[in-house]
Amino acid sequence: MKILVVISKFLPEYSGPSIRIKNLYERLAKKNFLKNKNILFLAGGEEFNENKTYYIKNFKVKRFKNTYSTNQISDYYNYYRNFFCIRREINFFKPDLIHVIGSNMLTASAIIISRIKNIPLCVELVNSTSKPNQNLPILKHFWRPNLNYNTKIIVISKFLKRKCLFMGYKNIWYRPNPININSFKKIKKIKTNKKILLNIGQFIPRKNQKFLVEVMKYLPHNFELFLCGPLVTMGSKKQRDLKYFNEIKKIIKDQKLTKRITLIPRYVDPKKYFKKTDLYLMPSYDEGLGNTIIESLASGVSVMANSSEPSFKEIIKDNQNGFLVKMKQEEWAKSIIKNINKLNTEKVRINSKKIFSLANEISIDKKYYKIFKEMTTL
Predict the structure, then answer these.
(1) Which of the chain's termini has less CB crowding within 10 Å, N or C?
(2) Beta bridge partners of 134
(3) 350 and 369 in a common domain
(4) Once rounded to an integer, what is the mean pLDDT over residues 160-181?
(5) In terms of Cα–Cα distance, which of 234, 216, 217 is closest to 225?
(6) Number of C-alpha atoms within 13 angstroms, CB side, residue 338?
């Protein structure tokens, strides 16, 4: 079985979906479901905007430049240039199935070509604003791809599933992002005299770490906050994200919080931090799911999250495995003080059993392979 994976951006450029997809195919190859040589990754990039062929974990990757829309006239040229690049790769590789993740010029092109050539297609939606019906400029006014035929739409939240059903799509598989549940359950907690709060996520505005810094103003001095996650240092979003990060640093300095807030602007192993954490915080918006929520629950750490995010409400059972709070700084501070020791490790895990069963990577891997096999043997 030959699979062409077309993803909006891929490692070494950081993104949650790129890490998950790399891990998925690594596990499938390790289990002998697939062979590395029969998997080809085609990717765009923002941080790394260049044409390049390279290997990651014995997987061949081809990256293409100028794959994101900039709302300029040149976009029309880039859309159709990338369309012909993708068509060339498909003609040469001859995949049995195309797996699309994310949204950019490459993914839209792959979807269209899969319909023209009648190649089985999996379309994976990875954030709350995603839609499966990607298309090219001008063409979208005359034709749209049929995604109810020989297609599986994979969504990471029930909210996305409802959105796809409303749009008229039927063949939908809902599954949370897969994690190794048992590895997080093995974490042994380390007790400290301080109250440790944690957030892990890329330093971008929608992750809303700035809100948590403001919340710290209202918390007692024995509360400490760790903000971890990579910061983009290259590409089209560099200035935006660096500005956002510097704003966070300025608030910390102005509010004299430097001894109580630790900034770690790089990718971290979450297990290392869950050991000491008393409460995990998720103030982000437009969030497809957030792997760290499930990882936190598996570690036995309760989660406080933005109550207006649909995907958070699917996972967090208020006062059972976490807390859903309106996005007001003082309300968060009061809720943190009140609830930080309310739920113990055992209770968090017991009340999260349903999401654990859905997010277990072992069962999800088997389901992926089953879908791939069924679609390629029709």
Answers:
(1) C
(2) none
(3) no
(4) 93
(5) 216
(6) 11
pLDDT for residue 378 = 66
CA proximity to 70, closest of 60, 81, 78, 59: 78
Q: Per-residue DSSP letters for 251-291?
A: HHHHTT-TTTEEEE-S---HHHHHTT-SEEEE--SS-S--H
Which residue, among 371, 363, 367, 369, has the nearest Cα to 182 in the 3D structure? 363
CA atoms lying within 13 Å on the CB side of residue 75 = 11
DSSP 8-state class, residue 302: -
Cis, peptide link before residue 176, omega less than 30° from 0 = no
Token code pair at residue 168? 């008229």
Calpha distance 66→69 (Å, rounded): 8
Structural domain containing residue 105 = 3-177+360-376
Q: Model confidence over 285-344: pLDDT tens digits?
A: 888 777 899 999 999 999 999 999 888 999 999 999 999 999 999 999 999 999 998 999
Whether 276 contacts 214, CB under 8 Å: no
- The domain that holds 86 is classified in CATH as 3.40.50.2000
Check whether residue 285 and residue 365 sit in a common domain.
Answer: no
**Which own/partner pairs from 315-318 qualify as long-range (CB within 8 Å, at least 24 positions apart)?**
315/176, 315/289, 315/352, 315/355, 317/351, 317/352
Chain centre distance of CA 29: 22
Rounded CA-CA distance 205/290 in Å is 15
pTM for this prediction: 0.90
Same domain for 328 and 196 = yes
Q: Could you tell me if 113 and 246 lie in one domain?
A: no
Only one residue has tokens 């277990």, namely 360
352-368, pLDDT tens digit by residue?
999 999 999 999 999 99
Residues 6+ apart with CB under 8 A from 209: 199, 201, 203, 227, 248, 283
Q: How many domains does the chain have?
A: 2
Residues 6+ apart with CB under 8 A from 361: 27, 178, 179, 180, 181
> CA of 270: how far to CAs of 198, 267, 282, in Å?
10, 9, 14
Report the run of H or E that residue 67 belongs to, with start and end: none
Total residues belonging to the chain? 378
Q: What's the CA gap between 360 and 125, in Å, rounded? A: 19
Verify that 205 and 335 share a domain, yes or no: yes
Q: Residue for token digits 């499930």?
A: 294
